[in-house]
## 1
Amino acid sequence: MTFARRTYHHGDLRRSLVEAAEGLLEERGAAGLSLREVAKRAGVSHAAPYRHFHDKAALLDAIAQAGFERLSERVREAWDGNPCDPRTQLREAGVAYVCWATERPERTRLMMGGMMREDPLCTCLHAAAEDAFQWIFRVIDEGRSAGVFGGPDTRSVVISAWSAVHGLAMLILNSGKVSAETPEEVARLAALVCDTVADGIQIRH
Amino acid sequence: MTFARRTYHHGDLRRSLVEAAEGLLEERGAAGLSLREVAKRAGVSHAAPYRHFHDKAALLDAIAQAGFERLSERVREAWDGNPCDPRTQLREAGVAYVCWATERPERTRLMMGGMMREDPLCTCLHAAAEDAFQWIFRVIDEGRSAGVFGGPDTRSVVISAWSAVHGLAMLILNSGKVSAETPEEVARLAALVCDTVADGIQIRH
DNA sequence: ACCTGAACACCGTTCAAGT
DNA sequence: ACCTGAACACCGTTCAAGT
């Protein structure tokens, strides 16, 4: 990738640290990730990361934030790809959400495991999460405007739909009771859960 | 509670350790819980806990297991309290699940945060979790037998219902986007989500 | 400006030794 | 049988010092 360092200065240490941390995260989980090991893998001393991140939490925040941006992108694609079809939009957005989450177990645990409940130091992380969740809101809102979905109010329906999608991802990841070995099986379950919710919020004629 | 120790022998150190750990858990979370601090609060040396637990994970497992037993009890009560009424059973079981979980944030994060994905050393933990989840299965199975609920098969319907209930609890706990400050608000949202699922799986006449 | 090396206060875990 | 105290190998974080 890059030829031997000529000085003790690193080219782009911040990026190298994030990449090393992402690798270590999927290998050992957030609890087993040590900043010293990250620094070692990036080829610097254990104190060097503090030039780029205030502390360990700040590095994990950066990884979580990048995760929300990518998840957001995937859900947006499902929205874009199925215009004027709220039921399919809901199913495809849900499938994208659950597939993305289950493909990256440790990253998802980091993002969804309650790291966001801390001090509002990192507004960027909250903004990235907000943006990802925004697309689910739009799917429901558009469906209600089109007269396909009903329910008492948009917020209530969003909570129901998002709970089902998010819950399925968490159960596959953490419960050990909902087995979905292949990506196809994950997608099948996600579609099933989304269709059940769609049946529950659909206006009947 | 107990009068001064006469010897360096502790009366029931195992129990004391669990209680100290439970307190520390809700105060600082699983990541901030140290075995040395638990030992200090129980009034023993930092090596003493190893007489009763193989390692830190074993202590956390014991706490998680007790949690599943209590959660199971609450869901079972909802089942018992509403015989021959699957729709109400589902709603009340869901409300019990979400309320219990949100009342004990750190304990629930410990139980549901992926601790169970480890080696099958602790069969007791898995059995306790299995038992808790069993009641949701029964609610759906009974509802399908009674001709109230439909769906392709019981397993699929259970996954949809459990996903919605579990997902709501996780979103309230971890997302920072679904706010439910009071127990009443939590119960209202849980009932709403359960009713949406019930609408989705109900057989229509 | 960017990184190093030593230092500090913590960890989990082990083990010989005490009662 | 049950607990202690010292010891080991790790942590995260800080900071004077180097280039």
## 2
Amino acid sequence: MTTHPSAEATLDKVLALSMLVTADMARFEAAERVTGPRLHLLWQLGMSGPCTQRALADALDVTPRNITGLVDGLVDSGHVTREPHPTDRRATLVTPTPAGAGFVARLRASHADLAEQLFGHMTPRQLATFTRGLDETLERFARLMDGDQA
Amino acid sequence: MTTHPSAEATLDKVLALSMLVTADMARFEAAERVTGPRLHLLWQLGMSGPCTQRALADALDVTPRNITGLVDGLVDSGHVTREPHPTDRRATLVTPTPAGAGFVARLRASHADLAEQLFGHMTPRQLATFTRGLDETLERFARLMDGDQA
DNA sequence: TATTGTTATACTCTATAACTATA
DNA sequence: TATAGTTATAGAGTATAACAATA
């Protein structure tokens, strides 16, 4: 009954899934009154712990000027504070407030919940098979990008 | 050797794939000097054919005011023109120029090429298995969103 | 009255360039 | 001299609200 899918049909489904994940994230952002780039910064901060704006600029791959704006917004919304760097008086340590830490915790919980909703029903074997397909695709992508740079 | 992946690890890989696809698209946009939202509009226009700004606003799920700005930019860059609607003098028909049509053709070719690069090496059976995993995940997502609305 | 698209206004994200304070 | 962060300036995308022309 099912004819074999074309590579293009499969890519379309990857894109569709990507859009749905993005939409789910947008819902979380709207509920928490935090924009995408600010969420990204908070997520990074949750992984790294308090760090300089320069480090955030490198991690998020945006300009230092951009980080200034994002941190300004997150200070206004009460998610982070700027603390003095203990040894370098030029630098500031962007530090989560309790509200900011709570946000990151909810974000992590939401992430885990989505994973469970999407994949929790699969048997370990099904999940392994599907994940292997993802791994292969990610590898192909890595090779593709290496090739284009060379 | 491979322990079974966790649902969360699999979701992380879906997100990683999503980011790579987005990065690939960004490269195309930069090469063509067209921004993401304008590309989206042109893609939609390629599917629908010439249509009103109102129809584009509905299709892209943005405000009519926003479409005005996007079309302004695409008129400036020579990708579309505003033509009078044959029967409704309030409306305009956003219409691709030859340059705009060429852009959409290149976008489609790029899409097909990426699909081939990512999935062309898989056997029909492997591709079918992987695609089935995607289908299941998309279905779970659909159910999840229905449930949240109810 | 309702609809199409625009003007007016405002906010966020993004970038480059010039500048200050510190290393 | 080099680095961390800011001010200044600019452009794109997004939204709401008020308005004009037309249906």
